[in-house]
C-alpha cells in the first residue's frame, strides 16, 4: 500500500513534469532582440551575442537568455510581443532596427514591468529604457579627426567617404568637421559610399581622377576602407605617406594593424560586441549588489599596433 | 519622267525614314555625348585616360549583364534575379577556389576551376529561371522575384551574414583579370567588347535572334509558326545566366570578396540600361548597341555626380532618375509626328 502510494506520487510528479517547469519558473529570463545579420557588422554582433549567451548561462545557471533576430521593424515589434507573452521575460535587451516604429512597442513591454536595456540606436522618446548602452558616433569622428591632425599639417588635402545618409553618419561627419576646423587641413570633397566596399572603390577612383594631390582619406568605416585601399593600389598612389582611416574594428583591419600595415595604420572602434556589454549589464541588474541603471557610452577607442591584440577576434565573422 | 518621279518619291521616303530612324537609334548616343560634355565642362579630368578606363571598366559589369537582359526582354520576359545571382555565384566561386587551393595550389588551375564553376552555376541558374517560366507556366516576374530572394539569402547564409573573402595568395594570380590590360584597354573592357559583339551577332544575324523578336512581338503567332517557344525562351534565360557568370568572373578579382551587399540593385540597373538603349520593355524589339550605350550612360551619371559638389549628395538618386527618364523620353516621344502630317 505504502509502495503504491509512493509510486503514484512519483508518477504524478513525472507526469506533470513538475521539476523542469518549477525550475524554469525560477529562472530569470532575458530576451535579446536585434536585427538579422545581413551585413558584416551585424554578423559580428550576432556572434558576440551568441558568445555572451554561452558565457553568461554557464556563469549563472538561473539566467536564461533568449536571442531573437528580426529583419524589419514590424517583425521586431512582433518578436518582442512574443517574448513578453510566450516567454514571460523579466528583462529585454533590444537594438531597435529603427527608432520611431519601435518606441511604442518597447514602451508597452516596459508597462508590463520588464527591465529595458536599449542598445546603440536610441528610442525616440526618453525615459522608457532603464539601461542604455551605445557606441559613441561623435567621438568616432573626433578621434579620427585628432589622428588626422596628428599626422597632417596645415595645407594638406584629405577626402572623406561617408556612410549611408543617416543620423549615425551625420553625427560622425559633423563632429569630424568641427574638430578639424581651423587646423588648415583642406577637405577636398565628401561623398556617400554607403558603408560598402564596391562604392568605396568607385568613389575613391573618381576622387583620384579628380584630385591630383590627396594626402589622406577618412573612410569612416572598415568596409569602405577596403575599397579605398584597392583603388589607391590600382592608381599606384598608395605610397608617399598616404594613409586611410576607417572605423568599426573589422578583424581583417585589426590584423593588418597588428602586422604593421602603413596604409591603414590605425582603426577607431565602434564595436559590434556592444551587444555583449549590454547583456552583461542587464544580467548585472539582477546579480550585482550595486546599482546598474543608467547610460553606458562606450569609448571610440583608437586602435593602434600597441593595443590591437585585445580587439582581435579571429573567430568572429567581422 | 515617270522614273524620275519614282526616284524622287523613293529618295523622299528614304530621307523621311532616315530622319525618323535617326533619333530612335541615335538617342542614347546623343544622351551619352551630352553627358560627356557636361562632365568635361565640370572638370577636365573627366576625359583623362584614367577616368575613361575607369568608366569603361565599371560599365563592364552592368553592361555584360544587360546584354543578356536584352535577349530576355526582347523575347518578352524579365529577369529580376541577376543581382542576387551575381552575388551568390561570386560567393560560391570564392568558396570553391579557397577549397581548391589546398589541392591545386595558388596557380592558374584554381582560378580556372573557379571560373568554370561560375559558368556552370550561371547556366544552371538561368536554366532554372527558364524552366520554371516555360514548363512551370509561372510569370517570369514571379519566378525571378522568387529566385532573387533565394539567391540573396543564400549568399548571406554562406557568408554567415558577413563577407566571403578570397585567399590573399590567390588574388595575385587572379587580380590581373580585373587590373591587367591588353593593348591599352583593361581586360574587363575586352570581355565587355567580346560579349557585345557576340550578342549583336546572335540577336541580329541568326535565326535565334529573329525567333526572340518574334516571340516577344506575339507569342501565339510564333507558336503557330512552328517556333519552339519554350526552348527559345529558356535559352534566353540561359544566355542571361551565362552573362551574369562572365560579369562575376571579372567582378571577383576586383575586391576579392562577396557579401549580402554584392550586386544589390544590379537587376534594375541592367533593365534600365536595356530600356535606355531602346529595347522595348514588353518585348519584340531589341538593340544590343543601345544596351551598351545605356550601360555607359548609367555609369557616366554616377561618375559625373562624384566629379562635382554642385549637387547635394542626398539628391544623387533624383539626378539619376531624371537623366534616365529624359534619355528614354528623347527617343520615345514622337518628335517627327508633327512634320510627318
Entry summary:
The complex is a heterodimer of chains A (318) and B (341). Chain A is of the alpha/beta class. Chain A has eleven helices and twelve strands.
Keywords:
heterodimer; A: 318 residues; alpha/beta; Rossmann fold; 6-stranded parallel beta sheet; 4-stranded parallel beta sheet; B: 341 residues; mainly alpha; ABC transporter involved in vitamin B12 uptake, BtuC; two-stranded antiparallel ribbon; two-stranded antiparallel sheet; 4 strands; globular
Description:
The complex is a heterodimer of chains A (318) and B (341). Chain A is of the alpha/beta class. Chain A has two domains: 9-134 and 272-287, Response regulator (Rossmann fold, 3-Layer(aba) Sandwich); 137-268, Rossmann fold, CATH 3.40.50. Chain A contains eleven helices and twelve strands. Chain A has helices at 2-15, 18-26, 40-59, 73-85, 99-111, 137-151, 167-180, 197-210, 222-235, 251-258, 274-287; strands at 28-35, 63-70, 91-94, 115-119, 131-134, 157-162, 186-192, 216-218, 243-245, 267-268, 294-297, 302-303. In chain A, strands 2-1-3-4-5-11 form a six-stranded parallel β-sheet, with helices on both faces. In chain A, strands 7-6-8-9 form a four-stranded parallel β-sheet, covered by helices on one side. In chain B, the strands form two sheets. In chain B, strands 1-4 form a two-stranded antiparallel sheet. Chain B is 77% helix and 3% strand. With 341 residues, chain B is mainly alpha-helical. Chain B starts with a helix and ends with a helix. The radius of gyration of chain B is 22 Å and the shape is globular. At the A-B interface, helix 3, strand 7, helix 8 and helix 9 of A face helix 2 and helix 13 of B.
Amino acid at each position: 500500500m505504502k509502495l503504491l502510494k509512493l509510486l503514484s506520487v512519483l508518477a504524478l510528479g513525472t507526469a506533470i513534469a513538475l521539476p523542469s517547469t518549477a525550475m524554469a519558473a525560477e529562472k530569470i529570463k532575458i530576451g535579446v532582440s536585434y536585427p538579422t545579420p545581413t551585413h558584416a557588422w551585424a554578423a559580428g554582433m550576432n556572434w558576440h551575442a551568441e558568445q555572451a549567451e554561452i558565457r553568461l548561462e554557464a556563469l549563472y545557471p538561473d539566467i536564461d537568455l533568449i536571442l531573437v533576430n528580426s529583419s524589419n521593424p514590424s517583425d521586431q515589434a512582433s518578436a518582442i510581443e512574443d517574448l513578453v507573452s510566450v516567454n514571460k521575460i523579466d528583462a529585454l535587451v533590444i537594438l531597435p532596427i529603427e527608432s520611431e516604429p519601435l518606441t511604442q512597442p518597447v514602451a508597452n513591454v516596459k508597462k508590463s514591468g520588464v527591465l529595458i536595456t536599449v542598445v546603440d540606436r536610441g528610442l525616440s522618446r526618453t525615459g522608457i529604457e532603464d539601461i542604455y548602452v551605445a557606441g559613441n558616433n561623435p567621438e568616432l569622428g573626433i578621434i579620427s579627426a585628432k589622428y588626422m591632425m596628428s599626422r597632417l599639417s596645415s595645407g594638406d588635402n584629405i577626402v572623406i567617404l561617408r556612410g549611408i545618409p543617416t543620423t549615425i553618419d551625420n553625427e560622425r561627419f559633423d563632429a569630424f568637421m568641427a574638430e578639424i576646423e581651423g587646423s588648415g587641413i583642406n577637405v577636398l570633397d565628401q561623398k556617400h559610399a554607403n558603408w560598402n566596399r564596391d562604392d568605396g572603390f568607385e568613389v575613391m577612383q573618381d576622387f583620384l581622377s579628380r584630385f591630383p594631390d590627396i594626402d589622406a582619406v577618412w573612410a569612416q568605416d572598415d568596409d569602405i576602407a577596403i575599397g579605398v585601399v584597392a583603388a589607391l593600389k590600382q592608381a599606384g598612389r598608395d605610397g608617399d605617406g598616404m594613409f586611410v582611416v576607417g572605423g568599426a574594428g573589422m578583424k581583417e583591419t585589426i590584423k593588418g594593424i597588428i602586422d604593421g600595415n602603413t596604409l591603414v595604420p590605425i582603426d577607431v572602434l565602434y564595436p559590434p560586441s556592444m551587444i555583449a556589454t549590454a547583456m552583461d549589464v542587464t544580467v548585472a541588474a539582477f546579480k550585482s549588489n550595486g546599482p546598474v541603471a543608467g547610460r553606458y557610452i562606450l569609448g571610440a577607442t583608437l586602435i593602434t599596433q600597441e593595443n590591437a591584440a585585445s580587439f582581435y577576434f579571429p573567430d568572429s565573422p567581422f | 519622267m515617270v522614273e524620275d518621279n519614282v526616284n524622287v518619291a523613293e529618295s523622299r521616303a528614304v530621307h523621311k525614314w532616315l530622319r525618323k530612324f535617326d533619333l530612335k537609334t541615335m538617342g542614347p548616343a546623343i544622351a551619352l555625348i551630352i553627358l560627356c560634355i557636361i562632365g568635361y565642362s565640370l572638370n577636365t579630368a573627366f576625359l583623362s585616360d584614367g577616368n575613361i578606363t575607369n568608366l569603361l571598366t565599371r560599365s563592364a559589369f552592368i553592361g555584360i549583364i544587360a546584354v543578356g537582359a536584352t535577349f530576355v526582354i526582347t523575347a518578352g520576359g524579365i529577369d529580376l534575379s541577376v543581382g542576387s545571382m551575381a552575388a551568390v555565384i561570386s560567393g560560391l566561386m570564392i568558396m570553391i577556389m579557397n577549397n581548391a587551393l589546398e589541392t591545386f595550389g595558388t596557380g592558374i588551375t584554381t582560378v580556372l576551376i573557379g571560373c568554370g564553376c561560375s559558368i556552370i552555376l550561371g547556366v544552371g541558374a538561368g536554366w532554372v529561371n527558364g524552366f520554371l517560366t516555360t514548363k512551370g507556366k509561372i510569370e517570369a516576374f514571379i519566378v525571378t522575384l522568387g529566385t532573387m530572394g533565394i539567391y540573396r539569402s543564400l549568399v548571406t547564409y554562406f557568408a554567415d551574414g558577413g563577407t566571403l573573402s578570397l585567399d590573399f595568395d590567390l588574388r595575385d594570380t587572379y587580380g590581373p583579370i580585373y587590373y591587367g590590360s591588353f593593348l591599352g584597354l583593361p581586360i574587363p573592357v575586352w570581355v565587355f567588347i567580346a560579349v557585345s559583339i557576340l550578342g549583336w551577332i546572335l540577336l541580329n544575324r541568326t535565326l535565334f535572334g529573329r525567333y526572340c523578336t518574334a516571340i516577344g512581338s506575339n507569342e501565339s503567332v510564333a507558336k503557330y509558326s512552328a517556333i519552339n517557344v519554350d526552348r527559345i525562351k529558356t535559352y534566353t534565360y540561359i544566355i542571361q545566366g551565362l552573362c551574369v557568370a562572365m560579369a562575376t568572373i571579372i567582378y571577383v578579382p576586383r575586391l576579392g570578396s562577396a557579401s549580402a551587399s554584392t550586386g544589390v540593385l544590379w537587376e534594375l540597373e541592367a533593365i534600365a540600361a536595356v530600356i535606355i538603349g531602346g529595347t522595348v520593355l514588353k518585348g519584340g524589339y531589341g538593340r544590343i548597341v543601345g544596351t551598351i550605350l545605356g550601360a555607359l550612360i548609367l555609369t557616366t551619371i554616377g561618375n559625373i555626380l562624384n566629379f562635382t559638389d554642385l549637387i547635394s549628395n542626398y539628391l544623387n538618386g533624383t539626378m539619376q532618375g531624371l537623366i534616365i527618364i529624359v534619355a528614354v523620353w528623347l527617343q520615345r516621344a514622337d518628335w517627327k509626328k508633327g512634320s510627318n502630317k
